[in-house]
Amino acid sequence: QVQLVESGGGLVQTGDSLSLSCAASGRTFSNYAMAWFRQAPGKERELVATMNWSGSRTDYADSVKGRFTISRDNAKSTVYLQMNGLKPEDTAHYYCARSRRPYELTYPTKIADFDSWGQGTQVTVSS
To answer: How many C-beta atoms lie closer than 10 Å to residue 114's C-beta?
Structure first.
């Protein structure tokens, strides 16, 4: 069973940047797609960014395109989310997730496509 541990959240102001990290246990990190989701109070969990197992394909929610970047370092078993130009509407609890199946050529996008989740890290953007 893989364990995912997020870090890097915090309280920032509009326009600031944050870099989130998600460290995974286990030796098969590089075989799986990874993604970041977020959930704001009273709202459903939504996909922020996703990346296939090789890192060759990524996709983003329209609301974060051009501002957020997902990346991975397989040697460190870590996936990152660089967030620039933060807005108050980015305030949420951010979770990383690992795909249910390895070696998927495309990037998964649905919550049901992922079966391992971290506890999340809070990002709060003040106006």
So the answer is: 23
C-alpha span between 29 and 68 (Å, rounded):
22
In the structure encoding, which two tokens stand for residue 44, read together?
A: 């459903």
pLDDT score at 27: 74
Is the sign of the CA dihedral 71, 50, 102, 104 positive or negative? Answer: negative
Q: What angle do CA 36, 11, 65 make, to 5 degrees?
A: 40
Report whether 122 contacts 40 (CB < 8 A): no
**Residue 97: CB partners within 8 Å, gap ≥ 6?**
4, 34, 35, 36, 37, 114, 116, 117, 118
CA distance 10 to 93: 10
Query: Rounded distance, CA 82 to CA 4, Å?
Result: 18
Can you give the pLDDT of all 127 residues of the chain as single tens digits? 799 999 999 999 999 999 999 999 977 888 999 999 999 999 999 999 999 999 999 999 999 999 999 999 999 999 999 999 999 999 999 999 999 999 987 899 999 999 999 999 999 999 9
